[in-house]
Amino acid sequence: MDQRPPQASPPHHRPFFLPSRPYLFKGHSTAYTISCLLLLFSFLLLLHFLTPLQPFLLLRIARSHDSHPDTACDYTFGRWVWDEGRRLDAYTEDCPFLDPGFQCRRNGRNDSSYLYWRWQPHGCDLPRFNASEMLERSRNGKIIFAGDSIGRNQWESFLCMLAKAVQNKSSIYEKYGNPITKHKGFLSMVFHDHNLTVEYYRAPFLAAVGRPPPASPDHVRAAIHLDALHWQCKRWIDADVLVLNAGHWWNEKKTIDA
Ligand SMILES: *[C@@H]1O[C@H](CO)[C@@H](O)[C@H](O)[C@H]1NC(C)=O
Ligand SMILES: *[C@@H]1O[C@H](CO)[C@@H](O)[C@H](O)[C@H]1NC(C)=O
Ligand SMILES: *[C@@H]1O[C@H](CO)[C@@H](O)[C@H](O)[C@H]1NC(C)=O
Ligand SMILES: *[C@@H]1O[C@H](CO)[C@@H](O)[C@H](O)[C@H]1NC(C)=O
């Protein structure tokens, strides 16, 4: 489970001020936020038209198998189906990139029914995940997950799925030597032989979180700045694929705690 967001900024005189890196952004927070958003947006547009990375296209568009062979199929439009004929076997809990807390079976889960659900897009089928193909298509690329612990789960699963196609497990490593245990910043896994980086940024709100405004009551320990992306967002700009997730922390208890 997630912990509270870190509080890591000196006090400020304005309530809505990008807090985390004052020496960089002091007096320029709005401009910074806008340029960050613009860059991110133009990057997404660019990605849409120019990406050399195939997995992104693969995920969005596939030829339909129905009676309209020239219609693109949107993989995001579909439903979960129970399929006893297709047990998920993309990886096991022996995978070295799983947090102990995310190893369901070792932590006592004794059913395996969750392994039989698969995503069924309307009008076409998803090809089965093929790790070596995915690695090849992602060569020289950067794939980033940012969000809460659900995003972290997805990131770890993805690492484990890719790692199945890598013989030499030592050729997969954290760029800065950080261990994959509970970690508060970001982790950058390198698939050395494919020059591929798969990163995770812990950003439960995706927005910036910092000190409360001056003269706040004592129980207000932090402020969520809805007008600013997470202070690490400048590191997301050169991603070929950016996977964002949020939601779980936007509940009354957690936003009020923040
Ligand atoms: C699995 O867990 C359920 C609920 O905790 C329990 O009733 C059941 O006996 C367990 N089955 C096995 C095989 O341990
Ligand atoms: C995965 O993809 C590779 C390369 O495209 C292919 O050679 C291999 O047969 C595929 N594996 C499966 C299980 O489909
Ligand atoms: C590795 O990929 C990066 C882009 O992520 C690229 O700039 C670099 O040239 C690549 N290195 C090699 C050796 O291909
Ligand atoms: C495995 O990968 C590591 C790190 O890239 C490398 O130093 C080592 O030589 C590789 N081992 C083999 C058997 O290829």
Structure report:
With 258 residues, the protein is of the alpha+beta class. The chain has a domain at 22-61 and 129-257. 24% of the residues lie in helices and 21% in strands. It contains 6 helices and 11 strands. The chain has helices at residues 22-25, 29-50, 54-60, 131-137, 149-163, 252-257; strands at 61-63, 72-74, 78-82, 117-121, 142-147, 172-174, 186-191, 196-202, 207-210, 223-229, 241-244. The strands form 4 sheets. Strands 6-7-8-5-11 form a 5-stranded mixed sheet, covered by helices on one side. Strand 1 (61-63) and strand 2 form a beta hairpin. The chain starts with 21 loop residues before the first helix and ends with a helix. The relative contact order is 0.20. Residues 1-69 have low confidence and may be disordered. Bound molecules: 2-acetamido-2-deoxy-beta-D-glucopyranose (NAG) (4 copies). One 2-acetamido-2-deoxy-beta-D-glucopyranose binds at residues 140, 142, 195. Residues 168, 170-171, 192 line the site of one 2-acetamido-2-deoxy-beta-D-glucopyranose. It is found in: Golgi apparatus membrane. One of its GO terms (cellular component) is Golgi membrane.
